[in-house]
Amino acid sequence: DQQVKQNSPSLSVQEGRISILNCDYTNSMFDYFLWYKKYPAEGPTFLISISSIKDKNEDGRFTVFLNKSAKHLSLHIVPSQPGDSAVYFCAATGRDDKIIFGKGTRLHILP
Amino acid sequence: DVKVTQSSRYLVKRTGEKVFLECVQDMDHENMFWYRQDPGLGLRLIYFSYDVKMKEKGDIPEGYSVSREKKERFSLILESASTNQTSMYLCASSLGVSAFQPQHFGDGTRLSIL
User: Fold this and answer.
1) Closest to B43 (Cβ–Cβ): which among A45, A89, A93?
2) A53: which DSSP letter?
3) Which residue, A21, A47, A82, A86, has fewest beta-carbon neighbours within 10 Å?
4) Nearest chain A alpha carbon to B105
5) CA atoms of A82 and B38, how far apart (whole Å)
6) CB pair distance less than 8 Å for B4 and A43
7) Tens digits of per-residue pLDDT, B34-91?
8) Number of H helices, E strands in chain A
9) Residue B16, class by beta-carbon neighbours within 10 Å (0-12 exposed, 13-18 middle, 19+ buried)?
10) What is the dihedral sign for C-alpha A47, A53, A58, A62?
């Protein structure tokens, strides 16, 4: 049973506009939520995280929002740039340091 | 900067061979992990280790084993390779403290079993 779900396999966004990637989870015991970015032939790179006690975390062009009641989080990228084209993985972790990953969303930034 | 190094970027082996994938990290991290990444399935945890000589099964351990004789090195072993183990294998490490620390990944080994 998937504990972390990314229901959109792909997303296309015009350069300069906002990209919104969504993620749902089922386990209310998760402590932290993370987003990783992955280019082809490279390992995933940690992007941004949010603690379960917060509802927003911002780092430059990247903002993650957490809605605990809905068990939903989203990553906003604004403005979107060509280098943002990649696969984005949503992930969650609890006290055991294991990270549960979603299946990923491929983001295409269109010129 | 954390460096996680996987010994091979590409590897081709034959069915039935014993295959070793090596991973080394240089930041004295306690935790190390092995994942495989397949299209449409995301990253799935195979095995992980919280300390030297310790190992824990992940979600898909069947057909694999691991070895952690030194803190910086975590090896994934395919006991008898099969074609369904053709995949991208990713190693990761993280600092094992009570506060949250993200995992840092190597660049992956693309393994093909013929």
Assistant:
1) A89
2) T
3) A82
4) A43
5) 25
6) yes
7) 999 998 888 999 999 988 988 999 989 999 999 999 999 999 999 999 999 999 999 9
8) 0, 11
9) exposed
10) positive
